[in-house]
Specification:
It comes from Botryotinia fuckeliana (strain B05.10). This is F-box domain-containing protein. It is built from 25 helices and twelve strands. The strands form two sheets. Strands 3-4-5-6-7-8-9-10-11-12 form a ten-stranded mixed sheet. Strands 1-2 form a two-stranded antiparallel ribbon. β1 and β2 form a beta hairpin. The protein is globular and about 70 Å long.
Length: 624
Amino acid sequence: MSTSTESTLEFEGSIIELDDLDISESGKSEEQLHNKSKDQLAANKNDTSASLAGNDSNKKIAPEIWHQAMSYLNTKDVKNFRLCSSKFAILGSEHFIETFAFRFNRRDLEKLEMISREHPKMLKNVKKIRFEKGFVPIRAMLRVLRKDYREAFEWDDEGRYIVEQNDEIEPIVISDIISEYLTWYTLWNKAAQKYDDITRMTKAFEHLNNVTCIRFSTGIPDFSSEALTRAWAKVAFPRAYGGIWKTRELETVMLAAQNSKVKLRRFAHDAAPALFFLQDLNRLENTLKPFRDLESLELLCDRRCSPTRGKINKRCSTGLWRAAQSAPNLETLHLGLVTGGYCKFETYEYVPLRKVLGVFTWPSLTRLRLDNMTLCEKDLTNFLLRHASSLRHLTLTHICLYRGSLHGLFQALRKGLKLESFHVDGIIHSSFGRELWHFFSTNKEVVESSELTEAENRRERLLNESKLQFYKDNNRIFLGKMWLQMKEDGLADELSAQLEAFVLNKCDITDWPVGLINKLAEKISYKGRVSPWNNWTDERIDAAWDAQLEEELLDTDVGTWEESQGELPEHIQWLRSDWQWKSKSSHSKSKWALWDELEEQAGIRALYEKSYAWGKAEKEDQVR
Protein backbone atom coordinates (compact mmCIF):
# COMPACT_ATOMS: atom_id res chain seq x y z
CA MET A 1 0.00 0.00 0.00
CA SER A 2 1.15 3.54 -0.60
CA THR A 3 2.61 6.12 1.65
CA SER A 4 0.33 9.00 2.65
CA THR A 5 0.49 12.75 2.42
CA GLU A 6 -1.86 15.48 3.48
CA SER A 7 -2.93 15.98 -0.14
CA THR A 8 -6.02 14.11 -1.25
CA LEU A 9 -8.22 13.72 -4.26
CA GLU A 10 -11.92 13.34 -3.69
CA PHE A 11 -14.48 11.32 -5.56
CA GLU A 12 -17.98 10.17 -4.84
CA GLY A 13 -18.16 8.17 -1.64
CA SER A 14 -14.46 7.99 -0.83
CA ILE A 15 -11.18 9.85 -0.44
CA ILE A 16 -7.81 8.60 -1.59
CA GLU A 17 -4.30 9.78 -0.92
CA LEU A 18 -2.57 11.27 -3.92
CA ASP A 19 0.43 9.05 -3.33
CA ASP A 20 -1.83 6.03 -3.81
CA LEU A 21 -1.81 7.09 -7.43
CA ASP A 22 1.96 7.43 -7.54
CA ILE A 23 3.84 4.79 -5.65
CA SER A 24 2.97 1.23 -4.69
CA GLU A 25 4.11 -0.60 -1.58
CA SER A 26 7.28 -1.64 -3.38
CA GLY A 27 8.00 1.89 -4.57
CA LYS A 28 7.26 1.10 -8.20
CA SER A 29 5.31 3.32 -10.55
CA GLU A 30 2.06 2.14 -12.14
CA GLU A 31 3.84 1.50 -15.43
CA GLN A 32 6.53 -0.56 -13.70
CA LEU A 33 3.87 -2.49 -11.85
CA HIS A 34 2.07 -3.14 -15.10
CA ASN A 35 5.23 -4.54 -16.72
CA LYS A 36 6.04 -6.54 -13.61
CA SER A 37 2.52 -7.92 -13.54
CA LYS A 38 2.85 -9.14 -17.12
CA ASP A 39 6.15 -10.88 -16.28
CA GLN A 40 4.65 -12.49 -13.20
CA LEU A 41 1.63 -13.67 -15.13
CA ALA A 42 3.85 -15.23 -17.76
CA ALA A 43 6.12 -16.88 -15.18
CA ASN A 44 3.25 -18.18 -13.09
CA LYS A 45 0.89 -19.07 -15.90
CA ASN A 46 0.09 -22.51 -14.55
CA ASP A 47 -0.69 -21.20 -11.07
CA THR A 48 -2.92 -18.49 -12.49
CA SER A 49 -4.72 -20.85 -14.82
CA ALA A 50 -5.36 -23.38 -12.09
CA SER A 51 -7.24 -20.79 -10.09
CA LEU A 52 -9.71 -20.14 -12.87
CA ALA A 53 -12.94 -21.99 -13.44
CA GLY A 54 -13.08 -24.57 -16.23
CA ASN A 55 -10.90 -27.47 -17.32
CA ASP A 56 -8.72 -25.60 -19.84
CA SER A 57 -5.59 -24.76 -17.82
CA ASN A 58 -4.23 -22.57 -20.63
CA LYS A 59 -7.00 -19.99 -20.30
CA LYS A 60 -6.73 -16.77 -18.33
CA ILE A 61 -9.06 -13.83 -17.81
CA ALA A 62 -8.26 -11.09 -20.29
CA PRO A 63 -7.78 -7.52 -18.98
CA GLU A 64 -10.75 -6.41 -21.07
CA ILE A 65 -13.02 -8.69 -19.04
CA TRP A 66 -11.61 -7.35 -15.79
CA HIS A 67 -12.24 -3.78 -16.98
CA GLN A 68 -15.81 -4.64 -17.93
CA ALA A 69 -16.43 -6.29 -14.56
CA MET A 70 -14.96 -3.36 -12.64
CA SER A 71 -17.16 -0.89 -14.48
CA TYR A 72 -20.07 -2.29 -12.43
CA LEU A 73 -18.28 -1.84 -9.08
CA ASN A 74 -18.50 1.16 -6.81
CA THR A 75 -15.34 3.10 -6.06
CA LYS A 76 -14.76 1.46 -2.68
CA ASP A 77 -14.82 -2.01 -4.23
CA VAL A 78 -12.44 -0.92 -7.00
CA LYS A 79 -10.03 0.37 -4.37
CA ASN A 80 -10.19 -2.91 -2.45
CA PHE A 81 -9.62 -4.84 -5.67
CA ARG A 82 -6.47 -2.84 -6.43
CA LEU A 83 -5.13 -3.49 -2.94
CA CYS A 84 -5.49 -7.25 -3.28
CA SER A 85 -2.31 -7.66 -5.28
CA SER A 86 0.26 -5.67 -7.20
CA LYS A 87 -0.94 -7.55 -10.29
CA PHE A 88 -4.34 -5.89 -9.96
CA ALA A 89 -3.06 -2.42 -9.05
CA ILE A 90 -3.01 -1.19 -12.63
CA LEU A 91 -6.27 -2.81 -13.70
CA GLY A 92 -8.57 -0.63 -11.60
CA SER A 93 -6.91 2.70 -12.24
CA GLU A 94 -9.30 3.68 -15.04
CA HIS A 95 -12.27 3.29 -12.69
CA PHE A 96 -10.68 4.86 -9.65
CA ILE A 97 -11.47 8.58 -9.82
CA GLU A 98 -15.02 9.62 -10.71
CA THR A 99 -14.91 13.19 -9.39
CA PHE A 100 -11.86 15.44 -9.49
CA ALA A 101 -12.12 18.13 -6.81
CA PHE A 102 -10.13 21.35 -7.07
CA ARG A 103 -9.88 22.56 -3.50
CA PHE A 104 -9.11 26.17 -2.72
CA ASN A 105 -6.35 25.26 -0.24
CA ARG A 106 -4.45 22.74 -2.41
CA ARG A 107 -2.46 22.84 -5.63
CA ASP A 108 -4.74 20.43 -7.39
CA LEU A 109 -4.10 21.86 -10.83
CA GLU A 110 -0.46 20.83 -10.47
CA LYS A 111 -1.54 17.41 -9.20
CA LEU A 112 -3.80 16.97 -12.20
CA GLU A 113 -0.93 17.81 -14.53
CA MET A 114 1.28 15.27 -12.74
CA ILE A 115 -1.33 12.51 -13.00
CA SER A 116 -1.96 13.26 -16.66
CA ARG A 117 1.76 12.80 -17.35
CA GLU A 118 2.43 9.75 -15.23
CA HIS A 119 -0.92 7.95 -14.92
CA PRO A 120 -3.20 9.20 -17.73
CA LYS A 121 -5.48 6.16 -17.50
CA MET A 122 -6.61 7.29 -14.07
CA LEU A 123 -8.36 10.30 -15.59
CA LYS A 124 -10.24 8.28 -18.17
CA ASN A 125 -13.31 7.70 -16.00
CA VAL A 126 -13.57 11.17 -14.41
CA LYS A 127 -17.13 12.36 -15.04
CA LYS A 128 -17.36 15.34 -12.73
CA ILE A 129 -15.16 18.33 -11.87
CA ARG A 130 -15.84 20.26 -8.68
CA PHE A 131 -14.29 23.65 -7.95
CA GLU A 132 -14.52 24.26 -4.20
CA LYS A 133 -14.43 28.04 -3.77
CA GLY A 134 -15.72 28.49 -0.23
CA PHE A 135 -13.82 31.32 1.48
CA VAL A 136 -14.21 33.48 4.58
CA PRO A 137 -11.56 36.12 5.46
CA ILE A 138 -9.95 36.47 8.86
CA ARG A 139 -11.99 39.52 9.86
CA ALA A 140 -15.28 37.65 9.38
CA MET A 141 -14.23 34.45 11.16
CA LEU A 142 -12.62 36.31 14.06
CA ARG A 143 -15.80 38.29 14.67
CA VAL A 144 -18.00 35.19 14.71
CA LEU A 145 -15.75 33.05 16.92
CA ARG A 146 -15.10 35.89 19.34
CA LYS A 147 -18.82 36.52 19.69
CA ASP A 148 -19.63 32.81 20.10
CA TYR A 149 -17.10 32.18 22.85
CA ARG A 150 -17.40 35.46 24.68
CA GLU A 151 -20.55 34.15 26.37
CA ALA A 152 -18.79 30.94 27.46
CA PHE A 153 -15.64 32.45 28.98
CA GLU A 154 -14.49 35.15 31.32
CA TRP A 155 -12.18 37.68 29.63
CA ASP A 156 -9.54 40.07 30.85
CA ASP A 157 -8.95 43.54 29.42
CA GLU A 158 -6.69 42.19 26.68
CA GLY A 159 -9.28 39.74 25.42
CA ARG A 160 -7.61 36.68 27.00
CA TYR A 161 -9.92 34.07 28.49
CA ILE A 162 -9.46 33.46 32.22
CA VAL A 163 -8.94 29.71 32.47
CA GLU A 164 -9.24 29.29 36.23
CA GLN A 165 -12.76 30.70 36.23
CA ASN A 166 -13.90 28.33 33.51
CA ASP A 167 -12.79 24.90 34.69
CA GLU A 168 -15.96 23.28 33.41
CA ILE A 169 -15.08 24.18 29.80
CA GLU A 170 -12.04 22.87 27.94
CA PRO A 171 -10.05 25.88 26.65
CA ILE A 172 -8.20 23.62 24.21
CA VAL A 173 -11.41 23.32 22.17
CA ILE A 174 -11.27 27.00 21.31
CA SER A 175 -7.60 26.73 20.41
CA ASP A 176 -8.32 23.77 18.14
CA ILE A 177 -11.10 25.60 16.33
CA ILE A 178 -9.01 28.71 15.71
CA SER A 179 -5.94 26.67 14.76
CA GLU A 180 -7.85 24.61 12.20
CA TYR A 181 -9.20 27.74 10.55
CA LEU A 182 -5.79 29.47 10.52
CA THR A 183 -4.16 26.32 9.12
CA TRP A 184 -6.74 26.26 6.34
CA TYR A 185 -6.21 30.00 5.69
CA THR A 186 -2.43 29.53 5.52
CA LEU A 187 -2.70 26.60 3.10
CA TRP A 188 -5.17 28.55 0.97
CA ASN A 189 -2.78 31.49 0.80
CA LYS A 190 0.22 29.34 -0.04
CA ALA A 191 -1.66 27.35 -2.67
CA ALA A 192 -2.77 30.58 -4.38
CA GLN A 193 -4.83 28.59 -6.86
CA LYS A 194 -5.67 30.48 -10.06
CA TYR A 195 -8.07 29.02 -12.57
CA ASP A 196 -8.03 31.97 -14.98
CA ASP A 197 -5.07 30.78 -17.10
CA ILE A 198 -6.89 29.81 -20.29
CA THR A 199 -3.96 27.88 -21.81
CA ARG A 200 -3.32 25.85 -18.68
CA MET A 201 -7.00 25.20 -18.00
CA THR A 202 -7.66 24.10 -21.59
CA LYS A 203 -4.82 21.61 -21.32
CA ALA A 204 -6.28 20.30 -18.06
CA PHE A 205 -9.66 19.77 -19.70
CA GLU A 206 -8.06 17.89 -22.57
CA HIS A 207 -6.97 15.28 -20.02
CA LEU A 208 -10.52 15.21 -18.60
CA ASN A 209 -12.28 14.81 -21.92
CA ASN A 210 -14.93 12.43 -20.55
CA VAL A 211 -16.23 14.97 -18.04
CA THR A 212 -19.98 15.59 -18.25
CA CYS A 213 -20.49 17.74 -15.13
CA ILE A 214 -18.86 20.89 -13.73
CA ARG A 215 -19.81 22.30 -10.35
CA PHE A 216 -18.65 25.48 -8.64
CA SER A 217 -19.28 25.24 -4.91
CA THR A 218 -18.87 28.14 -2.49
CA GLY A 219 -20.04 26.07 0.46
CA ILE A 220 -18.23 25.25 3.69
CA PRO A 221 -14.85 23.46 3.48
CA ASP A 222 -14.63 19.98 4.96
CA PHE A 223 -13.43 20.89 8.45
CA SER A 224 -12.96 18.21 11.09
CA SER A 225 -14.48 20.49 13.74
CA GLU A 226 -18.25 20.83 13.56
CA ALA A 227 -17.97 23.92 15.76
CA LEU A 228 -15.81 25.56 13.08
CA THR A 229 -18.26 24.46 10.40
CA ARG A 230 -21.10 26.10 12.32
CA ALA A 231 -19.05 29.25 12.88
CA TRP A 232 -18.37 29.48 9.14
CA ALA A 233 -22.09 29.14 8.47
CA LYS A 234 -22.80 32.09 10.77
CA VAL A 235 -20.69 34.50 8.74
CA ALA A 236 -22.90 37.10 7.06
CA PHE A 237 -23.18 36.36 3.34
CA PRO A 238 -20.40 33.72 3.22
CA ARG A 239 -20.81 33.22 -0.54
CA ALA A 240 -20.22 36.86 -1.42
CA TYR A 241 -16.43 36.95 -1.28
CA GLY A 242 -14.21 37.16 -4.35
CA GLY A 243 -16.66 38.30 -7.02
CA ILE A 244 -14.12 39.59 -9.56
CA TRP A 245 -11.93 36.50 -9.28
CA LYS A 246 -14.96 34.23 -9.56
CA THR A 247 -15.95 36.04 -12.74
CA ARG A 248 -12.59 35.49 -14.38
CA GLU A 249 -12.43 31.86 -13.35
CA LEU A 250 -15.96 31.10 -14.54
CA GLU A 251 -15.30 32.55 -17.98
CA THR A 252 -11.94 30.77 -18.23
CA VAL A 253 -13.41 27.39 -17.30
CA MET A 254 -16.22 27.81 -19.83
CA LEU A 255 -13.82 28.73 -22.62
CA ALA A 256 -11.49 25.86 -21.67
CA ALA A 257 -14.39 23.41 -21.82
CA GLN A 258 -15.31 24.80 -25.24
CA ASN A 259 -11.73 24.65 -26.55
CA SER A 260 -11.28 21.05 -25.41
CA LYS A 261 -14.67 20.02 -26.84
CA VAL A 262 -15.97 18.66 -23.53
CA LYS A 263 -19.62 17.55 -23.80
CA LEU A 264 -21.28 18.87 -20.65
CA ARG A 265 -24.59 17.45 -19.46
CA ARG A 266 -24.75 19.12 -16.03
CA PHE A 267 -23.51 22.45 -14.72
CA ALA A 268 -23.94 24.08 -11.30
CA HIS A 269 -22.75 27.33 -9.73
CA ASP A 270 -24.22 28.27 -6.36
CA ALA A 271 -22.89 31.86 -6.35
CA ALA A 272 -22.09 33.11 -9.85
CA PRO A 273 -21.07 36.79 -9.53
CA ALA A 274 -23.31 39.49 -10.98
CA LEU A 275 -20.36 40.89 -12.92
CA PHE A 276 -20.35 37.79 -15.13
CA PHE A 277 -23.88 38.55 -16.35
CA LEU A 278 -23.10 42.18 -17.19
CA GLN A 279 -21.10 41.19 -20.25
CA ASP A 280 -22.27 42.04 -23.73
CA LEU A 281 -24.94 39.44 -24.51
CA ASN A 282 -23.14 38.21 -27.63
CA ARG A 283 -19.98 37.67 -25.61
CA LEU A 284 -21.99 35.95 -22.87
CA GLU A 285 -23.58 33.55 -25.35
CA ASN A 286 -20.20 32.78 -26.88
CA THR A 287 -18.72 32.10 -23.44
CA LEU A 288 -21.58 29.73 -22.59
CA LYS A 289 -21.46 27.61 -25.75
CA PRO A 290 -20.76 24.49 -23.61
CA PHE A 291 -24.31 24.96 -22.23
CA ARG A 292 -25.90 23.87 -25.51
CA ASP A 293 -25.91 20.16 -24.56
CA LEU A 294 -26.85 20.60 -20.90
CA GLU A 295 -29.61 18.51 -19.38
CA SER A 296 -29.32 20.03 -15.89
CA LEU A 297 -28.45 23.61 -14.89
CA GLU A 298 -28.19 25.17 -11.43
CA LEU A 299 -27.29 28.84 -11.74
CA LEU A 300 -27.62 31.20 -8.79
CA CYS A 301 -26.43 34.78 -9.14
CA ASP A 302 -24.86 36.50 -6.15
CA ARG A 303 -25.80 40.17 -6.45
CA ARG A 304 -23.43 41.05 -3.60
CA CYS A 305 -20.58 40.08 -5.93
CA SER A 306 -21.38 43.17 -7.99
CA PRO A 307 -19.67 46.44 -8.87
CA THR A 308 -19.74 48.98 -6.08
CA ARG A 309 -21.18 51.70 -8.25
CA GLY A 310 -23.58 52.14 -11.13
CA LYS A 311 -26.96 50.55 -11.87
CA ILE A 312 -27.00 46.91 -12.93
CA ASN A 313 -30.42 45.48 -12.01
CA LYS A 314 -31.91 45.06 -15.47
CA ARG A 315 -28.66 44.12 -17.18
CA CYS A 316 -28.03 41.45 -14.56
CA SER A 317 -31.54 39.97 -14.84
CA THR A 318 -31.33 39.97 -18.63
CA GLY A 319 -27.93 38.27 -18.54
CA LEU A 320 -29.03 35.62 -16.04
CA TRP A 321 -32.05 34.55 -18.08
CA ARG A 322 -30.06 34.72 -21.31
CA ALA A 323 -27.53 32.35 -19.74
CA ALA A 324 -30.31 29.87 -19.00
CA GLN A 325 -31.55 30.15 -22.59
CA SER A 326 -28.08 29.11 -23.74
CA ALA A 327 -29.08 25.60 -22.59
CA PRO A 328 -32.14 24.83 -24.77
CA ASN A 329 -32.33 21.11 -23.94
CA LEU A 330 -32.71 21.35 -20.17
CA GLU A 331 -34.62 18.75 -18.19
CA THR A 332 -33.75 20.30 -14.81
CA LEU A 333 -33.38 24.04 -14.10
CA HIS A 334 -32.58 25.77 -10.80
CA LEU A 335 -32.34 29.52 -11.41
CA GLY A 336 -32.33 32.59 -9.22
CA LEU A 337 -30.47 34.87 -6.84
CA VAL A 338 -28.47 33.81 -3.80
CA THR A 339 -30.35 34.43 -0.57
CA GLY A 340 -27.24 34.19 1.59
CA GLY A 341 -27.59 34.16 5.34
CA TYR A 342 -30.47 36.63 5.44
CA CYS A 343 -33.41 37.48 3.21
CA LYS A 344 -35.06 40.87 2.71
CA PHE A 345 -37.69 40.51 0.06
CA GLU A 346 -38.24 44.27 -0.21
CA THR A 347 -34.92 44.71 -1.99
CA TYR A 348 -35.66 42.46 -4.98
CA GLU A 349 -36.42 44.42 -8.11
CA TYR A 350 -39.47 43.45 -10.15
CA VAL A 351 -38.52 41.63 -13.36
CA PRO A 352 -41.18 41.21 -16.09
CA LEU A 353 -40.45 37.73 -17.43
CA ARG A 354 -41.84 38.62 -20.84
CA LYS A 355 -38.99 41.14 -21.25
CA VAL A 356 -36.11 38.84 -20.26
CA LEU A 357 -37.51 35.57 -21.61
CA GLY A 358 -40.11 36.36 -24.24
CA VAL A 359 -41.95 33.14 -25.11
CA PHE A 360 -38.88 30.94 -24.81
CA THR A 361 -39.66 27.36 -23.78
CA TRP A 362 -37.59 24.36 -22.71
CA PRO A 363 -39.47 21.47 -24.40
CA SER A 364 -38.05 18.78 -22.09
CA LEU A 365 -38.15 20.68 -18.78
CA THR A 366 -39.26 18.27 -16.06
CA ARG A 367 -37.96 19.82 -12.85
CA LEU A 368 -37.88 23.58 -12.09
CA ARG A 369 -36.85 25.63 -9.08
CA LEU A 370 -36.92 29.45 -8.96
CA ASP A 371 -35.16 31.29 -6.14
CA ASN A 372 -35.36 34.80 -4.80
CA MET A 373 -37.31 36.51 -7.60
CA THR A 374 -39.88 39.29 -7.78
CA LEU A 375 -42.27 38.61 -10.66
CA CYS A 376 -45.92 39.06 -11.58
CA GLU A 377 -48.73 36.51 -11.60
CA LYS A 378 -49.48 36.83 -15.30
CA ASP A 379 -45.91 36.36 -16.55
CA LEU A 380 -45.09 33.54 -14.15
CA THR A 381 -48.33 31.72 -14.96
CA ASN A 382 -47.75 31.98 -18.71
CA PHE A 383 -44.15 30.82 -18.32
CA LEU A 384 -45.09 27.76 -16.27
CA LEU A 385 -48.07 26.76 -18.41
CA ARG A 386 -45.87 26.80 -21.52
CA HIS A 387 -44.16 23.80 -19.94
CA ALA A 388 -47.34 21.93 -19.03
CA SER A 389 -46.54 18.94 -21.24
CA SER A 390 -43.26 18.17 -19.46
CA LEU A 391 -43.07 19.94 -16.07
CA ARG A 392 -43.66 17.56 -13.15
CA HIS A 393 -41.72 19.03 -10.22
CA LEU A 394 -41.84 22.67 -9.11
CA THR A 395 -40.25 24.52 -6.17
CA LEU A 396 -40.76 28.24 -5.49
CA THR A 397 -38.38 29.79 -2.96
CA HIS A 398 -38.44 33.43 -1.81
CA ILE A 399 -40.93 34.50 -4.48
CA CYS A 400 -42.71 37.86 -4.45
CA LEU A 401 -45.52 38.82 -6.82
CA TYR A 402 -45.64 42.58 -7.32
CA ARG A 403 -48.71 42.22 -9.50
CA GLY A 404 -51.47 39.68 -9.04
CA SER A 405 -52.09 37.10 -6.33
CA LEU A 406 -50.69 33.79 -5.17
CA HIS A 407 -54.22 32.41 -5.07
CA GLY A 408 -54.62 33.12 -8.77
CA LEU A 409 -51.21 31.65 -9.57
CA PHE A 410 -51.75 28.45 -7.59
CA GLN A 411 -55.24 27.99 -9.02
CA ALA A 412 -53.82 28.23 -12.55
CA LEU A 413 -51.10 25.70 -11.70
CA ARG A 414 -53.68 23.34 -10.24
CA LYS A 415 -55.74 23.45 -13.43
CA GLY A 416 -52.99 23.66 -16.04
CA LEU A 417 -50.17 21.44 -14.77
CA LYS A 418 -49.87 17.77 -13.86
CA LEU A 419 -47.32 18.15 -11.09
CA GLU A 420 -46.04 15.20 -9.09
CA SER A 421 -44.37 17.41 -6.46
CA PHE A 422 -44.72 21.05 -5.44
CA HIS A 423 -42.91 22.95 -2.67
CA VAL A 424 -42.83 26.49 -1.31
CA ASP A 425 -40.01 27.77 0.86
CA GLY A 426 -38.69 31.02 2.27
CA ILE A 427 -40.71 34.23 2.09
CA ILE A 428 -43.69 33.96 -0.24
CA HIS A 429 -45.47 37.26 -0.75
CA SER A 430 -47.87 39.09 -3.04
CA SER A 431 -49.39 42.55 -3.20
CA PHE A 432 -52.88 41.06 -3.06
CA GLY A 433 -54.86 40.68 0.15
CA ARG A 434 -52.92 39.31 3.12
CA GLU A 435 -50.64 36.90 1.31
CA LEU A 436 -47.37 37.03 3.26
CA TRP A 437 -45.83 33.78 4.51
CA HIS A 438 -42.46 32.68 5.81
CA PHE A 439 -41.59 28.98 5.44
CA PHE A 440 -38.53 26.91 6.29
CA SER A 441 -38.95 23.62 4.50
CA THR A 442 -37.27 20.46 5.80
CA ASN A 443 -38.12 18.49 2.68
CA LYS A 444 -34.98 16.94 1.17
CA GLU A 445 -36.06 18.00 -2.30
CA VAL A 446 -35.84 21.62 -1.15
CA VAL A 447 -32.94 21.54 1.30
CA GLU A 448 -30.59 19.12 -0.47
CA SER A 449 -29.15 18.85 -3.96
CA SER A 450 -28.62 15.64 -5.91
CA GLU A 451 -25.42 17.20 -7.28
CA LEU A 452 -23.82 17.38 -3.81
CA THR A 453 -22.10 14.68 -1.80
CA GLU A 454 -23.53 13.63 1.55
CA ALA A 455 -20.92 15.71 3.39
CA GLU A 456 -21.69 18.79 1.26
CA ASN A 457 -25.42 18.42 1.86
CA ARG A 458 -24.74 18.17 5.60
CA ARG A 459 -22.83 21.44 5.45
CA GLU A 460 -25.66 23.03 3.47
CA ARG A 461 -28.07 21.97 6.21
CA LEU A 462 -25.82 23.72 8.72
CA LEU A 463 -26.12 26.88 6.65
CA ASN A 464 -29.89 26.53 6.81
CA GLU A 465 -29.77 25.97 10.57
CA SER A 466 -27.65 29.09 10.96
CA LYS A 467 -30.25 31.07 9.07
CA LEU A 468 -32.91 29.80 11.47
CA GLN A 469 -30.74 30.69 14.43
CA PHE A 470 -30.30 34.19 13.05
CA TYR A 471 -34.06 34.71 13.10
CA LYS A 472 -34.29 33.35 16.63
CA ASP A 473 -31.48 35.58 17.85
CA ASN A 474 -32.93 38.64 16.14
CA ASN A 475 -36.54 38.25 17.16
CA ARG A 476 -37.04 41.99 17.45
CA ILE A 477 -36.46 42.71 13.79
CA PHE A 478 -39.35 42.18 11.40
CA LEU A 479 -38.18 39.00 9.67
CA GLY A 480 -37.14 37.21 12.85
CA LYS A 481 -40.28 38.19 14.70
CA MET A 482 -42.49 37.25 11.75
CA TRP A 483 -40.96 33.80 11.38
CA LEU A 484 -41.22 33.00 15.10
CA GLN A 485 -44.86 34.10 15.20
CA MET A 486 -45.78 32.06 12.13
CA LYS A 487 -43.94 29.05 13.54
CA GLU A 488 -46.07 29.02 16.69
CA ASP A 489 -48.46 26.07 16.92
CA GLY A 490 -47.12 24.72 13.62
CA LEU A 491 -49.27 27.12 11.60
CA ALA A 492 -46.67 27.80 8.89
CA ASP A 493 -46.05 24.08 8.37
CA GLU A 494 -49.79 23.48 8.20
CA LEU A 495 -50.24 26.22 5.59
CA SER A 496 -47.34 24.86 3.53
CA ALA A 497 -48.93 21.40 3.49
CA GLN A 498 -52.34 22.81 2.51
CA LEU A 499 -50.89 24.91 -0.32
CA GLU A 500 -49.03 21.91 -1.72
CA ALA A 501 -52.16 19.77 -1.51
CA PHE A 502 -54.16 22.49 -3.28
CA VAL A 503 -51.74 22.78 -6.22
CA LEU A 504 -51.36 18.99 -6.54
CA ASN A 505 -55.14 18.47 -6.70
CA LYS A 506 -55.18 16.51 -3.47
CA CYS A 507 -58.08 18.50 -2.08
CA ASP A 508 -61.24 20.17 -3.36
CA ILE A 509 -61.00 23.38 -5.40
CA THR A 510 -62.93 25.15 -2.64
CA ASP A 511 -60.30 24.23 -0.05
CA TRP A 512 -58.15 27.30 -0.54
CA PRO A 513 -56.91 27.92 3.06
CA VAL A 514 -58.21 31.48 3.37
CA GLY A 515 -58.99 31.01 7.07
CA LEU A 516 -55.45 29.91 7.91
CA ILE A 517 -54.01 32.71 5.76
CA ASN A 518 -56.00 35.31 7.69
CA LYS A 519 -55.04 33.72 11.00
CA LEU A 520 -51.35 34.00 10.17
CA ALA A 521 -51.81 37.59 9.01
CA GLU A 522 -53.42 38.42 12.34
CA LYS A 523 -50.49 36.89 14.19
CA ILE A 524 -48.01 39.21 12.52
CA SER A 525 -50.44 42.16 12.37
CA TYR A 526 -50.25 42.23 8.59
CA LYS A 527 -53.06 44.12 6.89
CA GLY A 528 -51.87 43.75 3.34
CA ARG A 529 -49.78 45.76 0.93
CA VAL A 530 -50.64 47.56 -2.28
CA SER A 531 -47.96 47.47 -4.96
CA PRO A 532 -47.30 50.63 -6.97
CA TRP A 533 -47.22 48.39 -10.05
CA ASN A 534 -50.86 47.30 -9.72
CA ASN A 535 -52.23 50.26 -11.69
CA TRP A 536 -49.59 50.07 -14.41
CA THR A 537 -50.44 48.54 -17.77
CA ASP A 538 -48.08 46.04 -19.39
CA GLU A 539 -47.25 48.61 -22.06
CA ARG A 540 -46.26 51.22 -19.50
CA ILE A 541 -44.11 48.73 -17.60
CA ASP A 542 -42.41 47.56 -20.80
CA ALA A 543 -41.63 51.12 -21.87
CA ALA A 544 -40.15 51.94 -18.45
CA TRP A 545 -38.10 48.74 -18.50
CA ASP A 546 -36.68 49.48 -21.96
CA ALA A 547 -35.77 53.05 -21.03
CA GLN A 548 -34.07 52.05 -17.78
CA LEU A 549 -32.21 49.17 -19.44
CA GLU A 550 -30.87 51.58 -22.05
CA GLU A 551 -29.69 53.90 -19.27
CA GLU A 552 -27.87 51.01 -17.60
CA LEU A 553 -26.19 50.04 -20.86
CA LEU A 554 -24.98 53.62 -21.31
CA ASP A 555 -23.88 53.99 -17.68
CA THR A 556 -20.10 54.35 -17.84
CA ASP A 557 -19.89 54.48 -14.05
CA VAL A 558 -20.45 50.73 -13.72
CA GLY A 559 -17.36 48.75 -12.72
CA THR A 560 -16.17 46.46 -15.48
CA TRP A 561 -14.02 43.41 -15.91
CA GLU A 562 -11.37 45.39 -17.78
CA GLU A 563 -11.00 47.88 -14.92
CA SER A 564 -9.83 45.12 -12.61
CA GLN A 565 -7.23 43.45 -14.80
CA GLY A 566 -4.25 44.95 -12.98
CA GLU A 567 -5.35 44.30 -9.41
CA LEU A 568 -3.59 42.11 -6.87
CA PRO A 569 -3.99 38.32 -6.83
CA GLU A 570 -6.86 37.25 -4.61
CA HIS A 571 -4.80 35.67 -1.82
CA ILE A 572 -2.60 38.78 -1.48
CA GLN A 573 -5.58 41.13 -1.63
CA TRP A 574 -7.35 39.34 1.25
CA LEU A 575 -4.18 38.85 3.26
CA ARG A 576 -3.35 42.55 3.21
CA SER A 577 -6.94 43.57 3.81
CA ASP A 578 -7.27 41.27 6.83
CA TRP A 579 -3.95 42.30 8.34
CA GLN A 580 -4.60 46.01 7.90
CA TRP A 581 -8.02 45.64 9.51
CA LYS A 582 -6.52 43.91 12.53
CA SER A 583 -3.75 46.50 12.80
CA LYS A 584 -6.11 49.44 13.17
CA SER A 585 -6.48 50.45 16.80
CA SER A 586 -10.06 51.54 16.13
CA HIS A 587 -11.10 47.92 15.54
CA SER A 588 -11.66 46.83 19.13
CA LYS A 589 -13.45 43.72 17.89
CA SER A 590 -10.19 42.51 16.37
CA LYS A 591 -8.38 42.38 19.73
CA TRP A 592 -8.12 38.81 20.98
CA ALA A 593 -4.89 37.66 22.62
CA LEU A 594 -5.47 33.94 22.01
CA TRP A 595 -6.16 34.54 18.33
CA ASP A 596 -3.02 36.68 17.98
CA GLU A 597 -0.86 33.96 19.54
CA LEU A 598 -2.22 31.24 17.27
CA GLU A 599 -2.02 33.53 14.27
CA GLU A 600 1.67 34.09 14.97
CA GLN A 601 2.22 30.33 15.27
CA ALA A 602 0.45 29.74 11.96
CA GLY A 603 2.83 32.13 10.22
CA ILE A 604 0.25 34.67 9.06
CA ARG A 605 2.59 37.60 9.74
CA ALA A 606 5.30 35.98 7.60
CA LEU A 607 2.80 35.56 4.76
CA TYR A 608 1.80 39.19 5.08
CA GLU A 609 5.40 40.40 4.88
CA LYS A 610 6.03 38.07 1.96
CA SER A 611 3.09 39.60 0.10
CA TYR A 612 4.86 42.96 -0.01
CA ALA A 613 8.06 41.33 -1.19
CA TRP A 614 6.01 39.76 -4.00
CA GLY A 615 4.55 43.17 -4.90
CA LYS A 616 8.00 44.76 -5.02
CA ALA A 617 9.32 42.00 -7.30
CA GLU A 618 6.33 42.40 -9.61
CA LYS A 619 6.96 46.14 -9.98
CA GLU A 620 10.64 45.55 -10.71
CA ASP A 621 9.71 43.04 -13.42
CA GLN A 622 7.37 45.59 -14.99
CA VAL A 623 10.13 48.24 -15.00
CA ARG A 624 12.50 45.86 -16.77
